[in-house]
Amino acid sequence: MVSPISAVSAAKGNKSHLKDVAILLLAIGEEQAVKVFKKLEEHEIRDISREMSQLGHISNEDVESTIKKFTSEVATGASLVGTWENTERMLRKFMDDERVSEFLEEMRGPAGKTMWEKLNNINEETLANYLHNEYPQTAALIVSKINPSHAANVLSVLPKEFAYEVIERMLVLENVPREIVVNVEKTLKNEFMRNLSSKNKRNNHEMLADIFNSLDRGTESTFMEMLEQQNEMDAEMIRNFMFTFDDMVKIDAQGVQAILREADKEKLPIALKGANADVKALFLENMSERAAKILQEDIQAMGPVRVKDVDEAQQSIISTAKNLIDDGQIIIVDENSQDEFI
Question: Could you give all domains of the chain from N- to C-terminal order, each with its CATH number?
Answer without folding.
Answer: 4-95 (1.10.220), 115-200 (1.10.220.30), 243-341 (1.10.220.30)
